Amino acid sequence: MSVYEPWDAGRGAEIIAEHSHLEGATLVILHALQEAFGYVPEPAIPMVAEALNLSRAEVHGVFTFYHDFRHKPAGKHVLKLCRAEACQAAGGDALAARAEAKLGVSIGHTTPDERVTLEPIYCLGLCATAPSAMLDGRLVGRLDEARIDALIAEAQR
Amino acid sequence: MKMRIFVPRDAAAISVGADEVVAALEQAAAKRDVPIQIIRNGSRGLMWLEPMIEVATVKGRVAYGPVTPEDVPSLFDAMISTNGSHPLRLGLTEEIPWLKRQTRLTFARCGIIDPRSVDDYRAHDGYKGLERALTLTSDAILADVTASGLRGRGGAGFPTGIKWKTVAQTNADRKYIVCNADEGDSGTFADRMIMEGDPFVVIEGMTIAGVTVGATKGYIYIRSEYPHAVEAMNAAIAAAERAGYLGQRICGSKHSFDLEVRVGAGAYVCGEETSLLESLEGRRGLVRAKPPLPAHKGLFGKPSVINNVLSFAAIPFILAGGAKAYADFGMGRSRGTMPIQLAGNINYGGLFEIAFGITLGELVDEIGGGTFTGRPVRAVQVGGPLGAYFPRALFDTPFDYEAFAARDGLIGHGGIVVFDDTVDMAKQARFAMEFCAIESCGKCTPCRIGSTRGVETIDKIRAGERVEQNLAVVEDLCNTMKFGSLCALGGFTPYPVMSALKHFKEDFSPAPKSLQAAE
After folding, report:
1. At what angle do helices B138-148 and B199-213 cross, to 10 degrees?
2. Which CATH superfamily is domain A77-156 in?
3. What residue in A sits closest to B432 (Cα-Cα)?
4. Which of helix, strand or coil describes residue B187?
5. Cβ of B344 and A90 within 8 Å?
6. Which of B246, B19, B256 is nearest to B118 (CA)?
7. Does A52 touch chain B (CB under 8 A)?
8. Interface size, chain A vs chain B, as Cβ–Cβ contacts under 8 Å
């Protein structure tokens, strides 16, 4: 679990200023904002645009193009299940269905208590120790029913 | 003297408990009062044996695996005893047949050295390529790269020497070297492994490219799904800077070269080179129309060399005097070695580097040892989500760019994903279309709309709705996508779809055979 700061415009401006000198800084700044706040707060978009001399539409366009950037905070824990072919071949589909059933949400959603966000990921590069998952940045390979159950229990705590 | 123990820092090893094994080793050593030094190396690539730990002995490194923290106390006792016998003992690492059978040129050091140490890299022939390159003219370096026959390892297979020559001959005030480390293909992990296990070889290859074409700045674009690789590359760049291998006047020469890691944001299409350039420039990852080629107008409109991680990683060996040796391996127009990745439902999965020419059957059955479920292999997908599904009937295909193309497939980035006989190929075809629809950058219509229509049409087929007519629609959509898309995403999605249709047509009916056969 990661601990994030609440949105603060001054802190946001600081983060933007830290990176705005870089060539093609937009993604770097969006990553840095998300790392600090857990998502990219809407008021940050015009601030990024201003700092990089871009239009708000351009920055909004970048923000919405990439799967990684969040519009709102995720649940307390984020469980990402690899859904790509190598994990499918190794029984990943059944494990994903099991995770959905146990958590009571479909992939791409957060549990109503905001404890767990269940997300797909297309390949963690652990294709020879498949199926694999990532819980809050921690990698877990060779998943089976027992291991996925343990991960879910850990995320629900 | 301290006992030296190697435990991989590779993400795959960590995913199956390498960090916990390290903690257990430290505890066991403290309890027995035995001084140890733990070196976090890369993975040797024998993934079914991970975490595989090694102990340095007078006879060479001895491997044990797969190790769990619970195994460590008894293992530790075996390691400090004279005979060292233990059920997990694999013998001398270099003598393990799966490793011995390989020809490791690009992965020569991976799993052997400490990926954080420039000294260790140099002690294992590192930086010999750059040191020689600094004594050569640009033309002489280009001659070596061309003579090696190296072709782009990202999948397209374009001759690296020609690409570099084009950039070298283009005049500009600024040029860039860009490393494509957006390894998004399922079933591939060679880029990740080399970045985590031997990051300096990538840095050295990029530096040689910079010296050759006259570029002073390089970017490594790594996907965000690879946090361990990002950390490893950043640490290695800092170490190379401290040692004078990056920065101003590298190794006391007149050349300067700086490197920076940039992290992607979860868009598969950014592995396409022009989309990657857009993303590096801070924009939506929309594919650019070619021409202009990136070699003429690439990053920020400047001439740019953009190569895959494995292409750059092959360069140091070639420049260290190995151009001819490299070219002597392989078959036809596919020269040198390919780091092949065996993945999915397979007994012996991992990284297997070998000369081009080995057959698909040898790779899957002999080296991979078939499926871990014990069921027959029904299909293998070669080359990632855009690669074709091959049935057993095509297992005599040699691993070679042209041989795969001749059978309507591609070797791509060298990933092989094995499926057993429970696979539903209509579902896999649907997934290929769905993946394309999710990941399409949206710029061209065949890819953006074609993939969505593809999903809908395959759904109709699976529901038994006007099957023959809808199969014709899928084929038609595939042709439009193949010939009308701007890049390989829309252009190659037809490979998995059409190969599934061609070789596994029995699955494209309301009650697939494989489901009826399932117990």
Report:
1. 130
2. Glutaredoxin (3.40.30.10)
3. A85
4. coil
5. yes
6. B246
7. yes
8. 150
The C-alpha of B441 sits at a distance from chain A's nearest C-alpha, in angstroms, of 8
CA angle A120, B437, A28 (to 5 degrees): 60
Topology at the third CATH level for domain B118-328: Rossmann fold (3.40.50)
Q: What span, in angstroms and rounded, lies between the C-alpha atoms of B148 and B337?
A: 11
Whether the complex's predicted ipTM is more than 0.95 is answered with yes
Tell me if chain B has a CB within 8 Å of the CB of A113. Answer: no
Residues of chain A with pLDDT under 70: 1
CATH among 1.20.210.10, 2.40.30.40, 3.40.630.30, 1.20.1440.230 for B425-517: 1.20.1440.230
Per-residue pLDDT reduced to its tens digit, A37-53:
999 999 999 999 999 99
Contact B387/B340 with Cβ under 8 angstroms? no
Cβ–Cβ below 8 Å for B282 and A27: yes
Q: How confident is the model at residue B1 (pLDDT cuts 50, 70, 90)?
A: confident
Helix axes B227-242, B199-213, angle to 10 degrees: 60
Helices (H), B352-421: 360-361, 401-406
Query: What confidence tens digit (pLDDT) does each residue in B209-260 have?
Result: 999 999 999 999 999 999 999 999 999 999 999 999 999 999 999 999 999 9
Measured distance CA(A14)–CA(B340) in Å, rounded: 45
pTM of the entire predicted model: 0.96
Is the minimum CB–CB distance between A31 and chain B shorter than 8 Å? yes
